[in-house]
């Protein structure tokens, strides 16, 4: 290649990460020892031909940025920051203006990248640079493996999209500097502020945007579970299995049936409780919550709340499973032991396994249901109530 033009990276990190919970913007959350932004900076720093890396930050995040810059181990001379605006589009424009003010040449190349995509490989960045040098504007894309459906506002199928022509779009989007700076200035002057990426903005101002092969490993951290995926990407051996325990007791009262494992079992008594008093589902619910350190059933569904009076306990269990899944967990198995003199649980074992499995979407072989008496000792031995103990195993 002839004398290479100047190459800059513009890392967009000014967002507040509203889509992921927690007070810390996602680009400043830790993944394997350093922040997402530090990983992103390190990825761009690994390509020596990128001579400057400008990060567009929120004015409140200066200290966090400095820490990320230090942790990235990219030399200070190659790094700079600029304050962003109220939208992604405004932030990119302010970053481009900062480059212009610093004397970045009009025929230089700029790679505009989302901070929340930490895993840009050297191969991908090389493709971006080559494509921008050749075409002036180019974006990384991936084919769409699934059929694409168009749905109406009611969620009904309203047509299909031709998958062969569809692509998902990633960053960095790569441009000749004067071209993208000019397009952003014109968009700002026209008061057009709703472009979600730079390629569509450039295209709206007459630029032909080319594409190059993206990288599936360059996923964007959007949801909570993406942080776990990022951890696994960096250290595949970091996968872990966690175990939680749960224990519950309900006393007998007058009645003609009990609820155990979501199954109505005829009996000489009922169990007393605010909800349907199902000790098996309550114990399993607590076991699941235990794997994510997320309190207990009484915290999420307080007995003081009238809303849960007589509630079916499968609601509690399904909610715990949802919390586990939301944090990236996959329930591997649950197991429980029911302690009582009566009713006999054995004859209902298969039904309990099927019902618990239905609630948790587990096959019956992943659901243990066992029963024992306490040899007439203690409160269960005196037929005063039923106890249940449970354990859950969750892979992360
Ligand atoms: Mg209970």
Structural class: alpha/beta
CATH topology of the largest domain: Spore Coat Polysaccharide Biosynthesis Protein SpsA, Chain A
Uncertain spans: none
Number of domains: 2
> What's the total helix number?
12
Shape: elongated
Main CATH class of the largest domain: Alpha Beta
Cα distance spanning the termini:
46 Å
Proportion of strand residues: 25-35%
Taking all Cα atoms into account, the compactness measure Rg is 28 Å
Proportion in helices: 25-40%
Q: Which whole number gives the mean pLDDT?
A: 93
CATH homology-level superfamily of the largest domain: Spore Coat Polysaccharide Biosynthesis Protein SpsA, Chain A
Tell me what the CATH architecture of the largest domain is: Alpha-Beta Complex
């Amino acid at each position: 290649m002839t004398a290479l033009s100047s190459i800059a990276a513009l890392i967009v990190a000014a967002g507040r990460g509203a889509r992921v919970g927690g007070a810390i913007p996602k680009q400043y959350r830790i993944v394997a020892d350093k922040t997402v932004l530090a990983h992103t900076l390190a990825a761009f720093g690994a390509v020596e031909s990128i001579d400057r890396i400008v990060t567009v930050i929120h004015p409140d995040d200066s200290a966090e940025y400095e820490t990320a810059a230090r942790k990235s181990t990219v030399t200070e001379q190659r790094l700079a920051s600029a304050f962003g605006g109220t939208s992604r589009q405004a932030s990119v424009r302010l970053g481009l203006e900062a480059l212009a003010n610093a004397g970045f040449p009009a025929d230089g190349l700029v790679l505009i990248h989302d901070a929340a995509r930490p895993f840009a490989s050297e191969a991908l960045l090389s493709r971006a640079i080559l494509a921008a040098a050749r075409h002036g504007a180019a974006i990384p894309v991936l084919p769409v493996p699934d059929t694409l459906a168009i749905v109406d506002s009611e969620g009904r199928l309203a047509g299909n999209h031709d998958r062969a022509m569809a692509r998902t779009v990633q960053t960095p989007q790569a441009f000749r500097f004067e071209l993208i700076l000019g397009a952003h200035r014109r968009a700002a002057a026209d008061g057009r502020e709703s472009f979600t990426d730079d390629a569509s903005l450039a295209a709206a101002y007459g630029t032909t945007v080319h594409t190059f092969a993206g990288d599936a490993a360059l996923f964007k951290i959007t949801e909570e579970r993406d942080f776990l995926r990022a951890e696994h990407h960096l250290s595949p051996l970091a996968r872990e299995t966690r175990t939680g325990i749960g224990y519950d007791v309900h006393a007998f009262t007058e009645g003609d049936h009990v609820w155990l494992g979501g199954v109505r079992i005829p009996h000489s008594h009922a169990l007393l409780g605010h909800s349907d008093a199902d000790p098996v589902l309550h114990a399993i619910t607590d076991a699941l919550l235990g794997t994510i350190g997320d309190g207990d059933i009484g915290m999420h569904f307080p007995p003081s709340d009238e809303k849960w009076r007589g509630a079916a306990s499968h609601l509690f269990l399904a909610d715990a499973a949802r919390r586990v899944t939301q944090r990236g967990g996959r329930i591997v198995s649950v197991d429980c032991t029911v302690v009582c003199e009566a009713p006999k649980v054995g004859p209902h074992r298969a039904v309990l396994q099927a019902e618990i499995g239905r609630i948790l979407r587990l096959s019956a072989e992943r659901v243990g249901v066992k029963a024992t008496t306490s040899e007439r000792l203690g409160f269960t031995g005196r037929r005063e109530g039923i106890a249940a103990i449970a354990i859950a195993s969750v892979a992360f």
